[in-house]
């Protein structure tokens, strides 16, 4: 035991010396002006999907604010206590603002935020709110509705597959908006839903898409972070709607369009407001009108006439005169849930737990 | 010219230490090349890794928090390995320990904190022990291969927790997101000196396992059994009860890790609760030569490596994959050095040997 | 005979392992067509020297000449290329393959092997050397002798003209030994050279042309057989005068202490390995057990020691039936019986543990509490070292680093320490050099004088005939006879070992 102790002590000593003699590359005093901002990512910045879109936003932030900000990222952070540790590490490294980009981080963001009142936390897609933390998201359903129009015009079997992550309101809302878009041009078509219970698992997502294709769908849409479902559609000679980014590289013959996030628009605005002290903990809800939401350009695979149909609605959205969830809306049993003339409030949207008519699938 | 690999005679402790140090330097050199390729200054990165893991009280705490489950799990598997019972089911044992402890945390949160924590501790032990007994029974009764059984039972345990997380135990307040509700305050281990009290459990277990393996009759029997089943039979060791006891302890100690991680760190049960520590512990247990005093060192160094490489990811913008590659390079060399303590490479080169001889 | 050329010459061969000099400027010359015996105690450097000739070790310095040309041997493959092949004590055969497959295995490169062509070639080789191998038989079906012949054929086929045999007779019956000697003589006629490693004096005197004696890593002398005798060779080997005879101590009592009645046991495949074994032992008697390897000796010992399941029968020790009792019961109930198993490091001792822990192995059951007490065991270890003159760096040295003789002394010392009244010893001198053998015989005789009944299982008929009072011969799990050791002959025992029931039981 004595020998072990000696070795332990000497190692500690050497380590302590090494630490003591060196200067941290990231703790220089001259960088006081810079605001350090941490981004906690659920996926990889190169996933060509959800996290990629966020990282594009971060790069835009760096470009816009230049010397005034410094950003650090941590990729592939699991929705466990690990994420709490990642955020605490970021604070330890001097971050003043932290963006966390996945729903499952919510509990941990809240916990760390309450323990660090001087740091501002912004959580994507959730619903938490406190003095120093809030959430941000947007009406991606607008773009989903538009992509639904494209899919509804394209389908030949009148069956469209939808690979979906978790049965949480965010995803359900997207499926409903997409289905409403589909049926606005093709009332016969149905949307079949397959849950994967993961945001980021290329193989599993692809398998789910294959299962849907086996059931006779000829278009695959997705609420997932990878291009797995696109690849499945491409391999079967079918068509697809992407998400988050232009996915034509993954599936050149299948991909038609994708709902897009333009996170940079929000990140720049949020950081600027924090810098000049005008930030409030009001949740941010961006729309197509605000430029947060967009639809990727339609490819040659998209059906004839789709561009016109999309542009017509999109123009209304940009003008703020189109409501995706305007009544009448029927649920899966055909009952009218939202009568003509009324709509689904944002609050109800954020808690949506039912499918509209035309969706084949279960929320359990 | 020919290369051959020859088994070495036993080598001394000094030489072994030299080979070990050599392997660390080799690892630093090779990963340095890799870092240089990424246009980073290797020295800065290494120093940052140390700073990231030991540079402040907070960082040391984080390192310790990572070292705790690694150390305890290593102790658990070391008991089984000492018996040459290849328990690679620590993952499953941790999960089952966490499951049973969580059962009490979720359903009996009204109990006073010390009592509830004690119950959870015991439940964690029992959960892991049950998962350890099964392969022990299979092995002693039917001669099954424990490596395969323990490995496969990991997946059974994992699927069970996944089932709970997505099914009956899903938190109704999580708006559909598959997670189990957070534990109440009474089921969360308190902190002492900045780190949850799991560290005290780790220290106590290290001492207990040290005495068990070195000074107790059962520990002695486990060691004899590990060296030779025939000798154990000859010496009157009850094979059945010894194997079962060792696996109760091995699985049980891993189960305690499940309790600690669920209670102190995660404060709920999730399918990712192990963080892969059940497999990493196999490495640290071996690096520690199955001796508790050395396992402490191996686990701590490993935790420093993990915490350090996690730090450089954000400090230098190194991607996760590059950081993991650095960890892998270090492991590769350290584990590979074990090969050179047992074998040596002989290069037969007529010219060289002639030069050598004429030199004499 | 005069124009014989030197086939192998090893000059000034030095090899060190760490700080130990295994061979110190050793020299050896083997002539073409001779049987050359290498004689020496354990640790004399016989095997090390031969391992260097066959390419397993590489000498630190020195030269090897084969057929007059300096040759560098750095691997067994190189050695075979130069015509040197070694038959090890442990055969390197794959049990589930046939003889032919074993011979061809790993030798011929290329995708296909023309078995037919090779078979013809092998038949010719077998005729030339008068070897009798069934090429299509599976190795697991073969006796030890047959396996050895197969190894020889394999080595010859691969081009060996200088054959090294490492203690080849240790595992053979007398009849098989004679057969091996015939093969060796035939090889000599075919101008091959044979190097024969042994420490059995009578065999060396029978078969060798010349003998090189090694001692402690040095070459002592090379002698012609005609011009020397066993006494001289032994003294050269040991380095001092030695009394070679095994003493037989007269029996002191007629009191029966141990009775085995109709003992029957089955192995896992339900084959009877012990068939209706019955015998008695009296106080202060050494009862020898002879038999071909694998005739049931191991099962008999283990059954008596409670380590092998017994199907039926009684084992009466001082009136108490031991059948079905476990080793732990033996120890905790103080049954004064000790068993020295054949496999010293695989059963009797733990190779990786030190002497203290090995002694603890038989003591810890007795101590109270949950802890082990190493202090008394350490004291005992020091006592045994002194009493049996064990050479060891210390009581904390792992047993496996000790020499074979010292390992056996540790085992014996521990077992005798419990003052048994019945001692079962399985092959207690196997692999040990003459000096240690004699020491072990002395120890056993001492115990006999004290009135201990000793069951002595051995393969060396000379020691059985010299040491024992009676010899029980078993064949295929059955007793073929119990004879008086003073009157029995080797030939008689050999026949009984092959299963011939002896008619005139001289009990």
Provide a brief overview of the structure.
With about 375 residues, chain A is α/β, with parallel strands linked by helices. In chain A, about 40% of the residues lie in helices and about 20% in strands. Chain A has two domains: about 35-140 and about 265-285, Rossmann fold (3-Layer(aba) Sandwich); about 140-260 and about 295-360, Response regulator (Rossmann fold).
SSE order and pairing:
The complex is a heterotrimer of chains A (about 375), B (about 350) and C (about 500).
Chain A: H1 2-21, E1 35-40, H2 50-65, E2 69-74, H3 81-92, E3 97-100, H4 106-115, E4 120-124, E5 133-138, H5 140-154, E6 159-164, H6 169-185, E7 190-195, H7 202-214, E8 219-223, H8 228-236, E9 239-241, E10 255-257, E11 259-261, H9 263-275, E12 284-286, E13 293-295, H10 306-319, E14 329-330, E15 336-338, H11 346-349, E16 359-360
Parallel strand pairs in A: 1-2, 1-3, 3-4, 4-5, 5-12, 6-7, 6-8, 7-16, 8-9, 9-10
Antiparallel strand pairs in A: 11-13, 14-15
Helix pairs in contact in A: 2-9, 3-4, 5-6, 5-10, 7-8
Chain B: E1 2-7, H1 13-37, H2 42-54, H3 57-82, H4 90-107, H5 113-142, H6 146-166, E2 191-192, E3 195-196, H7 198-215, H8 217-227, H9 229-234, H10 239-266, H11 277-287, H12 292-316, H13 320-342, E4 343-348, H14 350-359
Antiparallel strand pairs in B: 1-4, 2-3
Chain C: E1 6-17, E2 20-31, E3 35-40, H1 46-53, E4 61-66, E5 69-70, H2 76-81, E6 84-87, H3 99-104, H4 115-129, H5 144-157, E7 162-166, H6 174-189, E8 193-198, H7 201-207, E9 210-215, E10 218-224, H8 230-238, E11 256-266, E12 272-282, E13 286-290, H9 297-304, E14 312-317, E15 320-321, H10 327-332, E16 337-340, H11 344-348, H12 355-363, H13 374-388, H14 404-417, E17 422-426, H15 434-449, E18 453-457, H16 461-467, E19 470-475, E20 478-484, H17 490-497
Parallel strand pairs in C: 3-8, 3-9, 6-7, 7-8, 13-18, 13-19, 16-17, 17-18
Antiparallel strand pairs in C: 1-2, 1-4, 4-5, 9-10, 11-12, 11-14, 14-15, 19-20
Helix pairs in contact in C: 12-13, 13-14
